[in-house]
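Hi L., both proteins are below.
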Amino acid sequence: VHQSKLDFFCKLGYGKQDICKVLENLGQEALEDDVLKELIRMGSKPQALENQAQPSQLKLVARGSCSTTLGLKWLGEDEGDASSSLRPIVIDGSNVAMSHGNKEVFSCWGIQLAVDWFRERGHTYIKVFVPLWRKEPPRQDSPIADQHILGELEKQSILVYTPSRKVKGKRVVCYDDRYIVKVAYEKDGVIVSNDHYRDLQNENPEWKWFIEQRLLMYSFVSNRFMPPDDPLGRHGPTLSNFLSKKPVLPEKKWQPCPYGKKCTYGNKCKFYHPERPHQAQLSVADELRAKTKVPLAPGKEKERCQCSP
């Protein structure tokens, strides 16, 4: 009897030592339910539950529709995170600072305004490129305002200094525009600058297309950073679509007729008339194309064949 009960609870996953202790306390003739209650009271757990409680270092994800979701959760990435749908931002620090300082002073406060604007929208990847010699004390020919902001942004891993050094008293500066375009191109992000980078467009055809399609210009209005609502023109995408990886297409809306009920075009009018609910929303050319595609009746086809030479 002792061996049979021992085998039974071992199959359930309980340890032999715990089972023997309970049988000694309750006796050999104790019921299985009493033994199980005593094991639970002692805090003994089956080995299968203990293995589940311990987090495994490696999880195998099965192939299928759920594999990507489980993989993202295991990597600590939230699929519904709003920041994942926004493009990375690369800011031309020199261009932004000089624009805010009216091209006379290198105003670091302008860089802070631009960074704060993108932070409020939810962008997590923001990089600002500034030449290293801007860390030096300001001079009369190159004044700098609010220079402490550069150090604060550097501590936040937002600002990056492009290298520069002095050789025989002359400053050798690396081309910071190349850093800006290269990082934005590799990250598939957006360049924030009023510079057109024409020299880099002529240098690389891939960069030419990227600069034309991903350059975000801006203006400063009373210490307010303001990019345009239509970065690529009136017929281009909106600012929210321009800054997002998955643009949302607007719903097609018919423009109401400016003449209203006084319109004399009738069914040929290409604008929307709310008083005509059954109006075909097609232009005259589209209606003619649709009519030419309509097949003729069988009787008319025979008459047409007989008449044709």
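That was the first. Here is the second:
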Amino acid sequence: MIWTTVFLGGLCVFHFALTLRAEISNSPWGRTMTLSRSQTPPRHRRDTSTSTGTSTPSRGPAFTSCWLPVTPTEHKILDDNTQETGFNGDDGSYVILTWVGDGTGVILVLSTISGPLNAYLAGGSSRLYRSTDYGKSFHDISHRINHTFIKEEFGVSVGPGSSVILTADTHIVDNPGGIIFTSMDAGATFKFIQLPFHLAQPITYHFFNPDYLVALSIDGGLWLSLDFGAKWTKVHNGVHSFSWGAGINLFFSCSRVDAVEAEERGDLALKRTKDLGKTFTIIHEDIFSFGYIGAFLFFSVMEDPRSPRVMYFSSDQGDTFSQALLPSASTEQ
């Protein structure tokens, strides 16, 4: 397959020969664009011995300009700020483009083959490209991660500064834990790390300190790292969800007993640790769910089985809380 990236100033436009589904998400540290083909052709194992990212014009379909009227001055601005990079021969059906850092000019592109299980076992792979000039040119840096197959769902995560985490697609049965690659220099170099657990969701960065990471394992364990993933410590079991608060406050909901569907029944306890997992405080019991937005902590509680749940909020990291004056609702809206 042939695909191209066209950069119009700070805007990136992917141009594919096939129909794509695109999703754009934003984080405090970068913007991510995910594209996938609506229909996937037969998969074949990639040849990882050569690099395919080039800065030469693509032989794919010609780029079609927009229909909005453009003045001659605007035409010149577009011409002076438009670059096209061709990825000839790349057969990835799932593409993730991520801006790294603020003003670094670094963009990472992950292209993966979404194949069946036997394709993974046979060496199904992904390709990782890196640009240091705002997308004018890309270089295949797959060798920096040993051509490891990176997850599609949450394979690339960017954090404060120029930190990047890549999560490998590993099999639970064959491996004691997951594999990640970490970088503190926007992908110029990567460090291989074997995790003592398998991730259930993306690793979460602290808001300001990239060394502080928190993760949830598939068996409900809450894990913390204080050195950017080099070492991990399990701090709690039976965790359902978590969120960083102000400073180093960490909130999480957990089952009071190892019960099935505790979240659906509102049988969770909301806890907080102010010292990175050394001690814990119970903020409230019998909660359904919680969230932390801005400086406010929210959680819903079933106080009476015969009545709808109620919502509480706190502006002091859970030390005190008040009931929100909201219309009654059976679910959070």
